[in-house]
UniProtKB/TrEMBL annotation:
Belongs to the HNH nuclease family. GO terms for molecular function: endonuclease activity. Keywords: Endonuclease, Hydrolase, Nuclease. Residues 23-79 form the HNH nuclease domain. The keyword Nuclease applies. The keyword Ribosomal protein does not apply. It comes from the Bacteria. InterPro entries: HNH, HNH_nuc. This is Putative HNH nuclease YajD.
Length: 109
């Protein structure tokens, strides 16, 4: 089973689909009462939907299932923790051509 995250996360997919990860993820969400731990520190109650590796999976695969290395976070906080993932989407947006339809002014024709 490959644990490394690679740049696109596809290499880590088998790990995130494994029964051991699913069990650990469920335990961490329950431990954190399904609340984003980052928002909670600011006094905000926000549901957690992601379990985040504090020490990144590709850098520390030995801590992949270590509950002390995992925290429940909301999608917004997870995106802040991983700004590099948003860059891929920005690059795609920049590549798209913007099409503008031009029409002749009927008053001049």
């Amino acid at each position: 089973m490959t644990l490394g995250g690679g740049g696109n996360g596809k290499k880590a997919l088998p790990f995130y689909n494994s029964p051991s990860w699913r069990k650990t993820r469920k335990a961490v969400l329950a431990r954190d009462h399904y609340l984003c731990q980052i928002c909670l520190k600011r006094g905000v109650l926000e549901p957690a939907v992601i379990v985040h590796h504090i020490d990144h999976l590709k850098e520390r695969p030995d801590k992949a299932l270590d509950e002390d290395n995992l925290q429940s976070v909301c999608a917004v906080c997870h995106n802040r923790l991983h700004p590099e993932k948003g860059k891929q989407q920005e690059e795609l947006k920049q590549r798209k051509a913007r099409v503008i339809q031009a029409r002749a002014n009927p008053e001049i024709i």
